[in-house]
Amino acid sequence: MWNIIAWNLAALFALIPVALLPLRRNAGRDLPYWASLVLAIVVPLGWALGQLSDGWQTSLSVDLWVGIAGSMVVFGLIAAINRQAWRLTPLLVPYMILLGLLAVLFAFVPAEPLTEAMPEAWLDLHILVSMVTLACLTVAATAALASFLQARALKLKRPTRLSRFLPAVTESERLFERLLIVSELILAIGVVSGLAMKKAGTGSVFTFDHKSLFGMIAFVIIGLLLIGRRVCGVRGQMAARVVLMAYTFVVLGYFGMKFVHQVLLS
């Protein structure tokens, strides 16, 4: 028990330095930032993989840590490629800390049995696709929120310290559009594999659970947004709101139902 508590707290505290570093004067993509970002990736990732060493776990706490680790890995890769993406740190990492607090709080909540009756390799593929989709959409939603906050500050002509730090509206929109395209492709695979799991477990492709339903709603919303951006020029706060709405459905599908079953109804 104490080992679990220690690892949960270590993974949580590893996220804090990179959340604080952007508060420095003249903060930048320097060695202290990268060192703290690596720490925020390695420790949660190691804890998540450690919990999965004996096979997939269905507990809400494990799912949260896997989601945190995946999101930090994807963010780290994007921050290394895109010179402006690191400016999303003040939005993304505090959100990860909040999820980490929930993971610590629910660390000893009993898990549900894994009921999917299908080959282990196919199940692993479905879970991997789901986690990558969640990670990409998490960063995309963060970029959408940054775009929303920047546009609002410009509209009100009242910039804040946070809005000055965040990427420009155009940079944020370009980033979340690219991530949405990747997420839509991966989400399509996730929806198909999820339906295949239902077919194997129930014998019917059209037996939707809440996770499948929310995933398909998010898939449709993202698809319509991408089409709208190309055809109708949907931009600005409207696009950001749609991204955040799609992400809400994904979060409800991944974490919401487990919270209801394992916490509220336990």
Automatic annotation (TrEMBL):
Pfam families: Cytochrom_C_asm
Gene Ontology biological process: cytochrome complex assembly
Entry's Gene Ontology molecular function annotations: heme binding
Positions of transmembrane segments: 6-24, 31-50, 62-80, 92-111, 131-154, 175-196, 208-227, 239-257
Keyword RNA-binding (UniProt): no
GO cellular component, one term: plasma membrane
Residue ranges occupied by any Cytochrome c assembly protein domain in the UniProt entry: 85-264
UniProt keyword Transmembrane helix present: yes
Top-rank lineage group of the source organism: Bacteria
Key words, A-Z: Membrane, Transmembrane, Transmembrane helix
Protein name per the record: Cytochrome c assembly protein domain-containing protein
Species this chain originates from: Telmatospirillum siberiense
Organism classification: Bacteria, Pseudomonadati, Pseudomonadota, Alphaproteobacteria, Rhodospirillales
